[in-house]
Structures are given as C-alpha cells and as structure tokens.
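Quarterly update from the structural biology core.
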Amino acid sequence: MTFRTLVLAAVLASLLGAFVLVRPAGGAQSLVRPDQLRFRLVGDEQIASPDGRNVVANWKVVILRDSASGQCYTMFVGGAAMTAIGPNACP
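Predicted structure, tokenized:
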C-alpha cells in the first residue's frame, strides 16, 4: 500500500466514525410536542363492502379533528390517492 492509500483509508475511517457519533440514536424524533399540533387523529379504519362481510382492498377512512375550530375532516385514502371532505360534525 502506498502512503496515499493509507491516508485515504484513515480519512474515510474518521468520516465514518464521525457519522456514527453524530447521527441520532433514537431514530426519527418530532420537534413539536403532541399538544401543540393542530390536527388530531380521531379514527382510522378500513372500509367495509356493502354486505359488511369483506373490506375494500387498500382503502381506508381517516377522520381528523381541527383543534382550533373544533371541526372534523373525513379523508378517503387508497394507496397514494386521497380525497378529503369537510368540515363536518365530529363523531
């Protein structure tokens, strides 16, 4: 090995060590406390078929409450598609 290769290996090792020391240990962390958020999750359920025995694949209903106005919003979510209805009365 040449001197240049040894220096390059030492620099890469120190950068890797610095990356391991600097990254957060607990994974993703929220910067906002939950009591400061404006929208709160009320419900998140799958959609039943008309006969009530099956569920509609990859679709669900999500209901969010707006803490500022007290109104609720209903969202239908299917994969990457989403549509929202509201404001409406909260359950």
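The chain has one domain: 3-30+38-88.
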